[in-house]
Amino acid sequence: MNIIQEFDTIAAISTPLGTGGVGVIRISGEKSFEITEHIFTGKIQPKMICHGWITDNDKKIDEVVVLPFKNPNSYTGEDVIEIQCHGGVNVVKNILEIVLKNGARMAERGEFTKRAFLNKKLDLSQAEAVADLIHSKTKNFAIQSAKNLSGFLSEKVNEIKKDIFETLSKIIAGIDFPEDVSEPDYDDLMQDFEKQIQKIDEILDSAKSSNILRQGIKIAIVGKPNVGKSSLFNTLLNLDRAIVTEIAGTTRDVLTETLDLGIPVTLIDTAGIREDENIDKVEEIGIEYSKQAAKDADLVLFLYDLSEELTQSDRIILEFIQDKKHLTIANKCDLSDKKPENTILISAKNKSGIKELKQKIKDIIMEFSPEDTEFVTNNRQQDCLEKARESLTQAYMAATVHELQDLISIDVKQALLCLDEITGEVITDDILNNIFDNFCIGK
Q1: Are strands 20-28 and 10-13 parallel, antiparallel or unpaired?
Q2: How far from each other are the two terminal CA atoms of the chain, in whole angstroms?
Q3: pTM for the full model?
Q4: Buried/exposed 68-105: b ≥16 CB within 10 Å, e otherwise
Q5: Strand, coil or helix: what is 310?
Q6: Rounded distance, CA 424 to CA 418, Å?
Q7: What is the pLDDT of residue 169?
């Protein structure tokens, strides 16, 4: 993007395309009001909700509500117009085309939020929280993302930066004004670095949980053919996603769906695993996919038929997953009085035992990601924190051997620069573009 494009007037549809009650076209830039006045029959007044029609060469297109925002009091910090029209695909597309025809250009991915960052309406960690909030797959992750949008992570990072800057100031003062200010005591420096590293560790301690909240975990349902895997898959999802028949080998491929259990769960229905010379090539491929899904899963639900004894085929599957975290589940408990140990009894058909199974799964999920995750960070932020921690550790080790404080200050400055990357005070164009390229158009 060139400099001229960086500050011209942009427009995009900000709501998902489809049939709905309302669609929103957002315009940002110095020509926003001028363009809207040209195509809107109503009178535009800042801080007022304006009603009228969008027209194209005096031809009425749609009756709309216009929300004008005068800079700097807008999302992007520029003049912004939001046109709320009826939510049909063709309606919003038609209005966007009219806006573009009258002097705006199509916004790039994340460009509205990028302008909010460039105009200091958001820092970089808050801008990234916008993307997390939009793409959150669970209620819990949406709440955590909203905390970062409110500045929760920024406040903690800025607190650490302030501590490091104070330490650096003492070092620099002792170096630059030796006659007036004595160098800080090495033990005091070590104590400062320890406290700063500890504060970084408090954020990094939540890194694993953060990644699980964002990416979720994989749960694969495995077992031999016709034990009820697809029925359990449908029951856990509460929808008829997989085909269920009494014919063994109905499922020939891997099916996946997302389930919200506090963190996003990718639930995987697999083809029945069996050793048989008579299986065809398609089922054989499906079985290989099933084995791979079990290998890749964070949790395996091993399902067998309680109305039968554990067969040799069941035992082969159990042996295959013995090193994986797994639950043993006996289906069709309505057809048997047996109660084997360390086994969850269910009936996928009449849904008995499903509530208990879900709770057991949730308990295991909490082992992956505790509910009390304080900080949510992404891989980029974690990398910055790790580098800052490494620089402070180098400074600490140098202080233990009474290294020249001029040299120690280099590592301290590097730690500050790494933390500056989190909030965006120091950032390269490549990193910036990579972040906003992951946004949707219109945000």
Answers
A1: antiparallel
A2: 17
A3: 0.75
A4: bbebeebbbbbbbbbbbbbbeeebbebbbebbbebbbe
A5: coil
A6: 10
A7: 94
